[in-house]
Amino acid sequence: MEFAYLGPRGTFTEAALRRLPAAKGATTVPMASIVEVLEAVRRGEVDAGFVPIENSQEGTVTLTVDELVGGDPLVIAGEVVLPVTFVLASAKPAAEIATVASHPHAIAQTRGFLRRELPNAVVHQALSTAQAAQRVVDGEFDAAVCAPFTAEAVGLPVQAFDIGDNSGAETRFVHVVRPAAPPEPSGNDITSLVVYIDHDRVGALLAVLTELAIRGINLTRIESRPTGEGLGRYAFFLDCTGHLADARMGEALTGLRRICADVRYLGSYPRDHSDRPVPPPEGLSDGDFADAAAWLERLRSGGAA
Predict the structure, then answer these.
(1) C-beta separation of 3 from 26 below 8 A
(2) DSSP of 225-286, one letter per residue?
(3) CATH architecture group of domain 181-305
(4) 8 A C-beta contact, residue 48 and residue 38
(5) Is 269 left (phi over 0), alpha (psi -120 to 50) or beta?
(6) Is the Cα torsion angle 249, 250, 255, 256 positive or negative in sign?
C-alpha cells in the first residue's frame, strides 16, 4: 500500500497520516502540492492520497474541495481530525526577527500573535509549515510558524509556544482513493456529496435539504463552490450523517438524483473519533424501511393493510 500526502516530511499532514488506521505499514510518499497528490491517485501511481480539507478556524481548503468537485472522480475512504498547535521557530531572539514564513493557513491562524509580538516583521508564504522551517534553516528567513515536531526535526529552537489565536484549532484531513466500494458501516459515518441544482428552479436548494431532513439525515457541512460556468452557477458540497448502505441514505440519494441536475458521490466513511454508534431517529432504521416496503408490497398484491 502506497500513500501520497502533502509534504514535505514534518508537516501536520504527515502527523495526521500516522493516525490513519488504513495507512499503518504503508509506504508514504510526500508531494509538493494537493493537486500533485490527487493526480497521482487518479493516474494510479499510488494507492491512496491524504490531504487537508478543512480547518476549524479558517474553514475550507478550497483547492482540495474544488479538485473533488470538478476533477476526475475520486472518493473519500476515511478522515482524521488533528488538533493543531503552532510555535515560533528561530535561531534568533524575537527582537531580531525581521522575516517570518509559513503556510497561508498557519499564518492566518497566528495573525494575532504576529501582529502583537512581531509587528514589524515581513510575513512570507510557503508551500507548507515544514518547508518554511527548512527555509529558515537554509537562511532565507529568520523564523517559521510551524508545529513543535517540525521545529525539533530541523533543529530550530522554539522562541514561543502555543502561538495560535485559537487554542482549540483542529484540521480535518481525508483519505482519498479511486472510485471503489465504501468501507463497511461503522454506525457513525459521513457521506460526502456534490449536488448540482437547476439554478432557474425556485426553491431548488430547499428541495435538496428536504430530501435529507425528512429521512433524519443531518448535514454537518454545506458549502457552495463555483462551477466555472458563469456567475451564479454553483455546486453544493455536502457532508451528511449516515452511510451509503443505510436504507434512509439510499432513499435520499435516489431522491436527490431525481430532482438535481447532477449528483456526485464522494464516499461514505467512518467519522474520526467515532467509537460509539449513533442510532437513527425513531422510524428511520433499516428495519423500519424494510417493514414499510413489505407493507407496500402486500397492498400491491391485493392484501389487507
Answers:
(1) yes
(2) EE-SSSTT-EEEEEEEES-TTSHHHHHHHHHHHHHSSEEEEEEEEEPTT--S--PPPTT-SH
(3) 2-Layer Sandwich (3.30)
(4) no
(5) beta
(6) positive
Q: Which residue has the cell 450523517?
A: 241
Q: How many CB atoms lie within 10 A of CB 134?
A: 22
Q: Rounded CA gap, 42 and 134, in Å?
A: 30
The C-alpha atoms of residue 39 and residue 163 are separated, in whole angstroms, by: 34
Residues 92 and 144: beta-carbon distance below 8 Å: no
3-state helix, strand, coil in the chain (%, to 5): 30, 30, 40
What are the 10-residue block averages of pLDDT along the chain, 305 residues in total?
90 92 94 95 98 88 91 96 94 95 92 96 93 96 95 94 90 96 93 88 89 93 85 88 95 94 95 77 86 89 78
| Second CATH level (architecture) for the domain 87-160 | 3-Layer(aba) Sandwich (3.40)
Residue ranges of alpha helices (H) inside 110-246 are 111-117, 129-137, 148-154, 204-213
Quote the pTM value: 0.84
For CATH 3.40.190.10, the residue range(s) in the chain are: 1-83+172-180, 87-160
Q: What is the DSSP code (8-state) at residue 32?
A: S
**Architecture of the domain whose range is 1-83+172-180:** 3-Layer(aba) Sandwich (3.40)
Strand partners, 239: 192, 221
